[in-house]
């Protein structure tokens, strides 16, 4: 039975350096978070982890249980240990927002998947029709109408 190659050797076959950004782009397997993060098997087929976490462990060492591996470059495909740091989930969210990583999704009708406009939301709030009827009329669920009327969503619309 052939001996398994070291993790470092196997890992370095699974990324390509991107010269402009310095990112190491993962070209290995994907399998988590809608395909946003690569996966790597460190020791054996049962020792599966996210590729950027594997990069940290291979090049930097262990990851404390109260921290996670975050990207300085905000590129979830990057496994360059120079672009990674140990931090909290709160720090990660702050970094993403600061870099504008979520701002392009927009709020309200500017959102990528918005089915409604602010004018429609205003009319829903004024309507006396049932949740079900309004949902059918606008192509959304009655739960969506309920959330709009209760200002749980679209709260920024007056």
Question: Would you kindly provide a written description of the structure presented here, covering whatever features stand out?
Answer:
With 158 residues, the chain is of the alpha+beta class. The chain has 2 domains: 7-104, Homing Intron 3 (I-Ppo) Encoded Endonuclease, Chain A, CATH 3.90.75; 108-149, no CATH class. It contains 6 helices and 7 strands, in the order H-E-E-E-E-E-H-E-E-H-H-H-H. The protein has helices at 7-11, 51-59, 89-98, 118-126, 131-138, 142-149; strands at residues 15-17, 24-26, 30-32, 37-41, 48-50, 68-71, 84-87. The protein has a 3-stranded antiparallel β-sheet with strand order 3-4-5. It has a two-stranded antiparallel ribbon with strand order 1-2. The chain has a two-stranded antiparallel ribbon with strand order 6-7. Strand 1 and strand 2 form a beta hairpin. Helix 5 crosses helix 6. It is elongated, with a radius of gyration of 22 Å. It starts with 6 loop residues before the first helix and ends in a 9-residue tail after the last helix.
Helix count equals: 6
User: What percentage of amino acids are in beta strands?
Assistant: 15-25%
- Characterize the largest beta sheet: strand count, sense, and whether it forms a barrel: 3 strands, antiparallel
Please give the CATH class of the largest domain: Alpha Beta
List low-pLDDT spans.
Answer: none
CATH topology of the largest domain: Homing Intron 3 (I-Ppo) Encoded Endonuclease, Chain A
| Secondary-structure arrangement, i.e. CATH architecture of the largest domain | Alpha-Beta Complex
Shape: elongated
Report the C-alpha radius of gyration, rounded: 22 Å
> Strand order, biggest sheet?
3-4-5
Domain tally: 2
Distance between the termini: 69 Å
Helix content: 25-40%
How would you classify the helix and strand content by structural class?
A: alpha+beta
List SSEs in N-to-C order: HEEEEEHEEHHHH
Number of strands: 7
Overall mean pLDDT stands at 86
